[in-house]
Amino acid sequence: MSQIGTIPVTAALKQDYALMHALVGVRSLDWIVILTNPACEERAMKSLASAGLITYRPMEPVTRRRRRASKTIDASRPFFPRYLFVALDRSASQYAETVRECDGVENILTFHFDKRPHVVPAREMRAIMEAAWKAQTDQEYQVPQSFSIGEQIHITTPHYQRLEAFVSGYHEAKGMVTAEADMMGQSVRLLVPVDKCQKVR
Q1: Helix (H), strand (E) at residue 31
Q2: Whole-angstrom Cα distance, residue 156 to residue 168?
Q3: 10 to each of 35, 75, 137, 138, how far by Cα in Å?
Q4: For the chain, what are the domain ranges?
Q5: Quick one: which of 145, 146, 192 has its CA closest to 165?
Q6: How confident is the model at residue 125, as a pLDDT?
C-alpha cells in the first residue's frame, strides 16, 4: 500500500530549498532539461555532479508500508520521470556538450531547428520548485528573508498587527528575529518568527 506523505520542515530542508531558489535567480545560469536513459536518473545525476554541474530533480513524497510489518519504506518518485533540470554557468564556460558526454544522459530537450537546448525561464523554475516544496511539506513556499541589525521592520502577528520595531538580533538557523519595539513609552524586546516580520520599504 502506497500513500503520499509530507516531509518534516527541518532547518536543513529549508536551507536546501533556499539555496536552489537563490540559484534560479543567478543571471549567469541557464537551466536546461535533459532526458536520461531509462531508470538512469541517479546515474546521470552522479555523472553530471562529477562534471561540476548543478542538477535538480523535483520529487513527490510517497511512503509504502510492507505487508505484515510496521516498517514503512521511502518510495518517493520524480515529478517528471527520466527528466532532470541542469544549470549551465555561462561565466564558467559550461556548455551543452559537457552534458551530452555525461553517463546516463540520452538527450537534451529542444524546440529549436538548430537543436540548441531549451532554456527554462526563471519564473517557471521557481514555480516547479515551489510546487515540489508544497508537495513535500504541505505548505506554501515562503522566500527566505534576511535582516540587518538596526533595520526597521513591521511585526505582522495577529497580536501586534504591523507594530513598528528595529532588529536587534537575527538567528537564521532558528528562523527568529529579536526586535526592539516602543510600547506604551517603554522599549520592549520581542522574539518573532522570521515569517512574521516584514521589511519597511
Answers
A1: strand 29-36
A2: 17
A3: 31, 20, 10, 13
A4: 2-137, 152-199
A5: 192
A6: 94
Which DSSP letter does residue 141 get?
-
Count of helices and strands (H, E) across the chain? 4, 14
Distance CA 18, CA 31 (A): 17
Most confident of 16-30, 47-61, 136-150, 152-166: 47-61
pLDDT at 1 over 60: no
pLDDT at 118: 95
Class of domain 2-137: alpha beta
* pLDDT number for residue 5: 62
Rounded distance between C-alpha atoms, residue 136 and residue 114, angstroms: 38
- Rounded Cα distance between 176 and 20, Å, is 22
Q: Does residue 119 register a pLDDT over 80? A: yes
| Average pLDDT of every residue of the chain | 86
CA geometry: angle 104, 100, 118, nearest 5 deg: 110
The region that residue 184 occupies, defined by phi over 0 for left and psi between -120 and 50 for alpha, beta otherwise, is: left
User: For residues 17 and 31, what is the distance between their CA atoms, to the nearest angstrom?
Assistant: 16
CA distances from 156 to 1, 8, 120, 185, 193 (A): 43, 25, 35, 20, 10
